[in-house]
Amino acid sequence: MTPVDAPAANDVILSVRDLVTTFDTDSGRLTAVDGVSFDVRRGRTLGIVGESGCGKSVTALSIMRLLPQPMGRIQGGRILFEGRDLATLPPAELHRIRGGRIGMIFQEPMTALNPVQPIGRQLSEVFLLHRTRDAADAWRRGTEMLRKAGIPAPEIRMHEYPHQLSGGMRQRVVIAMALACEPAVVIADEPTTALDVTIQAQILELMQALQRDLGLAVVLITHDLGVIAETCDDVIVMYAGRVAESGPVESIFDRPAHPYTRGLLDSIPRLEGTRKARLRVIEGMVPGLRDLPAGCRFHNRCPHRIDRCATAPNLEAVGPGHEAACHRWRELPPR
Amino acid sequence: MDASDVPPAPLLQLEDVQMHFPVREGLFLRSTRSCRAVDGVSLQLPAGETLGLVGESGCGKSTLGKCIVRLHQPTAGRIRFEGTDLAALGQAALKPWRRHLQMVFQDPVESLNARHTVGEIVAEPFVIHGEGDARERRERVLGLLEKVGLPAAAADRYPFEFSGGQRQRIGIARALALRPRLLVCDEPVSALDVSIQSQVLNLLLELQRELGLSYLFIAHNLAVVKHVSDRIAIMYLGRIVELAPAEDIYAAPRHPYTRALLSAIPRPEPRGTRERIALQGDVPSPISPPPGCPFHPRCPHATDRCRVEAPALRAAPGRPGHTVSCHLDL
Amino acid sequence: MNLPRLRVDPLTHKKLQRFRSIQRGYVSFLILATAVVLSLAAELLVNSRALVVRHEGRWHFPTYGRIHTGKEFGLDYAYEVNYRELGRKFAADPSGRNWVLLPPVPYNPLENCHPGETFRPRPPDWARQNFLGTDQINRDILARLVYGFRNALAFAAAFIVLTYAVGISLGCLMGYFGGWFDLLVQRLIEIWSNIPFLFVVIIVASIVPAGIGMNLGVLLAIVVLFSWTGMTYYMRSATYREKARDYVHAAQVLGASTARILFRHILPNVLSTIVTFIPFTIASSISALTALDFLGFGLPPPTPSWGELLRQGTSNLQSPWIVASAFSALVLVLVLVTFIGEAIREAFDPRKFTLYQ
């Protein structure tokens, strides 16, 4: 993802460098994100995929500076956005960027909406905070935004409360709020996980359409490889707080270099697959943050491990824009 | 899916099962309307087979599963297990039958009592049904743990010491304790990590081969359901809209809803060029289902007939064992 | 599995460890626990009876056991010995053969410490061993405080056991069975809890036959009668919540009986949260008893009680040691109990607070 030849380096709109995020708990300090770097480009979608505890959501929360306080803390690294480092920005300036220049979409739309306010009021508040001082104007813009988000009869919906809407409609409202101030970047953390497949398809389509119209950069965090494949341009595969592999979506799915990515792709049942055949599995279990293995974090589950894997591998270029953190990526058998 | 001509006698046979929950409202909590969670489901499940039950949230698939294990008392219909109508039995008469029908739950954190050791959890079926003495139970618990791939030492530990996948194994061990014939699996892998899902699916398939179990496999992930099932039933608003052999439903879906569902699943292949059938709107409320075909408000092919007349499940022409509930021949 | 269920499960163990790590609560707990243990042995510490009497080569331990008359120790009266006087008499005997060992506070809470002298509050007097002074009828304040504390504790303990027993069982049944039963009991509870408590206490106090008197048992019965309802609300909703969880469904699918589900599954999971209420119940029951005593509807005189001391204190403000000692003791105990309660809540139910920047 770090472009060597950088033909479109000026397209990079959000750049995360060596991000380290920790949590202080009863049993000591846990490192949830350990040296993660990536670039987000204008008009493109970056997918971050991984299993529970891999640090994908913590990465998103770190960018937004929404880590639970006082336990969570960014220990190191920079989050460069429009010439400023979000990791050290004072809260007052952060508020202007958050919701204004960077939008957020969360997994559960109900938690992102205030249950006792009509959605129109919540939506126009975003405009009042960032764009206009005129309440009527804010209301008008809010209605327009709902229409863009594909909500039928937005004038009526503006007066309704979140609980009167279905899950899909609520997520559309959240998307409308996130996009209200024409942000440069939208961070979507599992935006469709709580939704049904047919609704998920609608929402993903809406997000893609809005992205095309507004030239947004999107960071899409999900555990669903299908969603990644269908909506993302670039992918980061995270495992246990580190980047295992990153690159353009086609390279990742066609030529996965890291054994973990390969394992993931092999283990999911496919519609075309043979029924009741034994699925390939990744042995063992996802490590908890308390007992991370030393060296390559994946080596205790890796079928290709050797002694050298006890030392942590660096990300190496394995193809154009495609990097993997594996000592043995050259030697692995072709899939 | 063997091609034997004589259909095996069904282990489980549902006849027009309905589960209508009363909606209590108003000052005196009178029940004036009802939520038709399951609205007339008939199906058969032969011994040793897996029937997949797919649908979106609120379609009644979990409610149907709970009716079968009698967590709900269905409001109408018959649930015949080896010919006996379980729906007509009281709790006491039902108890001896319970050993034959067990359930695997979605969330392994919720479904295990955090205050009991794994050994106590897995031994509880024996205690409830008065089987064996303490030593015998202990032995059988260790055997069950081994069968689901857990070490014997797990018996003296507590559920929270295990990961999600291991906890689901504990839940499976408990469900297997009484040697059931039928396992109702309610979204057994959807709460698990991707790399753990395949481990649990493999375990379920192995157990089926080894013990000749029948599964009613409830899930929303069609790829997972297709992988484990012999036949698949698609549910929409409390009814079965299509029921067919697993390969068939994927290769030649007949119902417009099935087609939309299949096309909506994101496939792990980047930039695939396939046409997506976009469904408009949301699933209607089962409290006031639309008249006629329940799917017609979202159906791209709906005709006037669909708006008035509810279609019955009928055999799809030229497809043995494939039934569909649609007026149209798509 | 075959071991008896005495061991603490690791979740509880962790909670206890977290409790011990909360210093303020843990230290308060140690102080209060010490006070409770000492108050149980109050007869050995605060008593007009001697601990040991050595008389003519024989040992006597009058604290527990039968009453010794004056004649037994060579005095000229046939009622109970005044050991303080006995001690002085023996001490005057230069041979030193006979002696008396008195408790650190040689008064019982009911007696007039200075017979023959006028009734008036006396300030603390270390020489006469009235460490906190005396009240308006010459009774030792420290003795009354200690025994009053013990009465309050006994009251609180009985109060908790009774209110929780009623509240937990009824609330649990309401939550588990729901439906009409729940609805009916809820309405009855609402009616019941609208009966004004204090009026009932006043009425009962006026009609209880003098022969029985307003003793601890009657008072307890009245207070419990009006206090169990709070627990049913909590238990009802907690049981509703637990009942809907899958581990209960799993037990139902296995064919577990209602009793088994209630006692093996739901109750253990709900009770662990109830532990956090206990300290606050103790605090409120102690304050309730003190308030009733203060108002004069509590325990009958001369039972030692903090409320009665407070009342004396407020009507004798020119003798500030009465109100000061009773007030300090009350505040100290309530603060300790509250600290313990806070720590238990923190340890059992850690709501890690979160702020966003």
Structural notes for this entry:
The complex is a heterotrimer of chains A (335), B (330) and C (357). Chain A has 335 residues and is of the alpha/beta class. Helix content of chain A is 31%, strand content 24%. In chain A, strands 6-7-8-3-9-10-12-11 form an eight-stranded mixed beta sheet, sandwiched between helices. A four-stranded antiparallel beta sheet of chain A has the order 2-1-4-5. The longest helix of chain A has 18 residues, at 197-214. Chain A is globular. Chain B has 330 residues and is α/β, with parallel strands linked by helices. Chain B has ten helices and twelve strands. In chain B, the strands form two sheets. Chain B has an eight-stranded mixed beta sheet with strand order 6-7-8-3-9-10-12-11, with helices on both faces. Chain B is globular and about 65 Å long. Chain C is an all-alpha fold. Chain C is 60% helix and 3% strand. Chain C has a three-stranded antiparallel beta sheet. In chain C, strand 1 and strand 2 (58-60) form a beta hairpin. In chain C, helix 5 runs antiparallel to helix 6 and helix 13 crosses helix 14. Chains A and B meet through helix 8, helix 9, helix 10 and helix 11 of A and helix 5, helix 6, helix 7, helix 8 and helix 9 of B.
